[in-house]
């Protein structure tokens, strides 16, 4: 190879290394923002639950309900843009119901950036006095992971521990970096 071709490749490598460094910094910033927004969402959720449990029961007008629905749709849209996760379908079926215990089977499908996923889980809801607790009793995840064994291990571990929050957080990060890698490899083709 002559020196001009080598120099072109070295310049391209240096450019890609700088781009990777910038993306890594951007990722760190987004992780910090994510933590901030997660805390805010948690506080908002708790506030909403307190308001819902202690608020009026059946005294709201249709216009109030419509305004609440619009606010929830806005929040959902924000979350989908922020996390990259979009749900395409959801179904729920009651499997068992007693006075203070309900088991429901949920099916979710969607995508996160360019990765699609399907979840199936059973949710056991138990009511004790005025508190309701919910526990995931069975979880099955189907993902198009291709040949990536790390994703398969992660999915197996998540199914074993039945932790949906960890799954969605990790899926969001993985899918974002998966897109960056895909674009980088397309750059070389």
UniProtKB/TrEMBL annotation:
InterPro entries referenced in this protein's UniProt entry, alphabetically: CENP-P (IPR027801)
Superkingdom to which the source organism belongs: Eukaryota
One GO BP: CENP-A containing chromatin assembly
Coiled coil: 6-33
Keywords: Coiled coil
Cellular component terms per the entry's GO annotation: chromosome, centromeric region; nucleus
Record-linked Pfam families: CENP-P
UniProt cross-references to PANTHER family, sorted A to Z: CENTROMERE PROTEIN P
Protein name: CENPP protein
Originating organism: Mesembrinibis cayennensis
């Amino acid at each position: 190879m002559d020196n001009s071709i080598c120099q072109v490749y070295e310049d391209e490598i240096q450019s890609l290394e700088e781009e990777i460094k910038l993306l890594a910094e951007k990722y760190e910033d987004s992780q910090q923002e994510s933590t901030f927004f997660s805390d805010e969402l948690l506080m908002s959720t708790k506030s909403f639950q307190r308001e819902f449990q202690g608020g009026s029961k059946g005294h709201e007008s249709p216009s109030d309900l419509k305004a609440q629905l619009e606010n929830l749709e806005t929040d959902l849209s924000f979350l989908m843009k922020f996390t990259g996760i979009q749900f395409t379908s959801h179904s729920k079926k009651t499997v068992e119901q007693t006075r203070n215990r309900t088991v429901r089977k949920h099916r979710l499908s969607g995508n996160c950036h360019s990765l699609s996923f399907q979840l199936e889980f059973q949710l056991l809801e138990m009511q004790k006095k005025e508190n309701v607790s919910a526990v995931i009793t069975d979880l099955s995840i189907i993902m198009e992971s291709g040949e990536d064994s790390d994703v398969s291990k992660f999915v197996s571990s998540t199914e074993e521990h039945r932790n949906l929050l960890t799954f969605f957080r990790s899926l969001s990060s993985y899918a974002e970096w998966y897109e960056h890698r895909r674009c980088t490899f397309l750059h070389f083709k």
